[in-house]
Specification:
Length: 133
């Protein structure tokens, strides 16, 4: 099952994203700031990082700088999440796609599918519908 790392200091946002992704067939792991996120990535590389920008200890900008400085972590795609900045500006600055909070869940799923492929539930549906045809 594809794994998505959710890095956000806002617990309700983390829980909602976890629920959304798990019900869409993705495994998730979470972190409350950039330091924890980098530690999680060093344990296991996800197919995608959903990265909040404004966080204590290490914000999304510093996380991305350190991620890109590590050749093992640099290839992992990132989609940033922001409620404080213009998503287009942040996306250009970080070199990633960026979604504006409050999040529109279909946009989140589209972003995850674009980087990780369909979740296991959707793959199972496609396999079942293809095999019964």
């Amino acid at each position: 099952m594809p794994q998505v790392l959710i890095i956000d200091d806002d617990e309700p946002v983390r829980r909602l994203l976890e629920l959304l992704l798990k019900t869409s067939g993705y495994d998730t792991v979470t972190a409350t700031n950039g330091v924890e996120g980098l530690e999680q990535m060093q344990r296991q590389l996800p197919c995608l990082v959903l990265l909040d920008i404004m966080m204590p200890e290490m914000d999304g900008f510093e996380f991305r700088r350190q991620q890109l400085a590590d050749p093992n972590l640099a290839p992992v795609p990132v989609v940033c999440l922001t409620g404080h900045y213009e998503p287009e500006q942040v996306g250009l600055q970080l070199g990633v796609a960026c979604l504006k909070k409050p999040l529109h869940f279909p946009d989140v799923i589209d972003a995850v599918e674009a980087k990780c492929g369909p979740g296991s539930f959707r793959r199972a549906k496609k396999t079942t519908s293809t095999s019964t045809s």
